[in-house]
Amino acid sequence: MAEDITDVVENVTTHMDLLRFATAGSVDDGKSTLIGRLLLDSKSIFEDQLEAVETTSKGKGYDYTDLALLTDGLRSEREQGITIDVAYRYFATPKRKFIIADTPGHVQYTRNMVTGASTADLGLVLVDARQGLTEQSRRHAVILSLLRVPHLVLAVNKMDLVDYSEEVFTKIHDEFTQFATKLSIPDLTVIPISALAGDNVVNRSEAMSWYSGPTLLHHLENVHVASDRDLIDARFPVQYVVRPKSDEFHDYRGYAGQVAGGVMKPGDEVVVLPSGMTSKIAGIDLFDQEITEAYPPMSVTVRLEDDVDVSRGDMIARVKNAPSPSQDIDAMVCWMTTTPLKNRQKLAIKHTTRTARAMVKDIQYRLDVNTLHRDQEAGELGVNEIGRVQLRTTVPLLSDSYSKNRTTGSFILIDEGTGVTVGAGMIL
Ligand SMILES: Nc1nc2c(ncn2[C@@H]2O[C@H](COP(=O)(O)OP(=O)(O)OP(=O)(O)O)[C@@H](O)[C@H]2O)c(=O)[nH]1
């Protein structure tokens, strides 16, 4: 269900403004309450859902409406029958559409965060104002910076429980800003909120008149994400070759996929990798119409002027700006399964639309995400651990560094026996 919604939103909103954000926080920091508040105050929920939550809250003897029930209710619906690491929630305001990647339950699991945040435009870290920064908040910030999530919001929650004190907020703000200088976080915003009372979530807080920054929703609606995407380096991994069988289209041959980088236009000189054959873009099709340009994350079909040999897993790029094929991959890998990753281990690797086999040549170090210490003696990676790994693949991959392109710079590792995803990698 969650995936369906994501797909639909992705298709329908190709040209609409969309912000994907991932939430993180320790248990009880108020993540569910905050998401409930966002949905409620931005009028994204149905009356009957609210009534049900009000009734349940009264039934439990609360004198307030427990908004977490709203989120948790949605969450349990999603969890029925399947183990889900990340629940995706969708809401919209007149300004923007939002997809929230919400990691349920105990969020200490690195892999849940990696899954949820790898495609996020913005990471939202929650802290409890009474507790201030914890090891967990630092850890989440480190992971978000490793994943190159371009925007980070630290929401200092439960301000109502510290008398809306400016002093408490400033202390947390300064401590976090100081810590963030050690990480690569291009854009950081710190907002004092009360998810339960509604301060600075959608509506401006009267109790915190000392705060002059944006409310959380205002920030989410206005944060500038268009320029985060790589619009310079054209990258088009071919998903499949379109050759309709009917007579009417018997000459049609197109290559379908999602633009991973750059802007592509008819007339562009392109190279097909790994063959190295060159051609020009004859046209670009979107559903049943022709378009004049395509850019990330549009899903389109590209036609070429020449009858070159193109198949699934190939990459179309510009002649003078193409990734160089390589079988040696140097990457940060997040390991996601209980059997540790070891030297010489063989795995399947999926990179854009290409699948190959890979062998672990070296586990160079394990990164302690709390202290940023690099342990070079580690020799293996356990579940939820992140480390620098050298891989050798059976066929060349057409990759970029993750810092340049989050799509062509990432891959997943798959256990060949079970088909289960056991690792996620970011190419250095
Ligand atoms: N006073 C006050 N209580 C809050 C606030 N936000 C959340 N709470 C309370 O804190 C408790 C935890 O909130 P949740 O939203 O369930 O916390 P969570 O982080 O989502 O927890 P998990 O869903 O288990 O990950 C609940 O009792 C909330 O009512 C706030 O701004 N002020």
UniProtKB/TrEMBL annotation:
Q: Where is the Tr-type G domain?
A: 16-229
Q: Which GO terms describe its biological process?
A: sulfur compound metabolic process
Which superkingdom heads the taxonomic lineage of this protein's source?
Bacteria
Classification via InterPro entries: CysN_GTP-bd, CysN_II, CysN_NoDQ_III, G_TR_CS, GTP-eEF1A_C, P-loop_NTPase, SO4_adenylTrfase_lsu, T_Tr_GTP-bd_dom
List the molecular function annotations (GO) for this entry. Answer: ATP binding; GTP binding; GTPase activity; sulfate adenylyltransferase (ATP) activity
Read off the PROSITE patterns from this record: G_TR_1, G_TR_2
Enzyme Commission number(s) from the entry? 2.7.7.4
Q: Which UniProt keywords apply?
A: ATP-binding, GTP-binding, Nucleotide-binding, Nucleotidyltransferase, Transferase
SUPFAM superfamilies associated with the record: EF-Tu/eEF-1alpha/eIF2-gamma C-terminal domain, P-loop containing nucleoside triphosphate hydrolases, Translation proteins
PANTHER family, A to Z? TRANSLATION FACTOR
Under the heading NCBIfam families, the entry gives: CysN
Name the UniProt record assigns to this protein: sulfate adenylyltransferase
Origin species, per record, is Nocardioides bruguierae
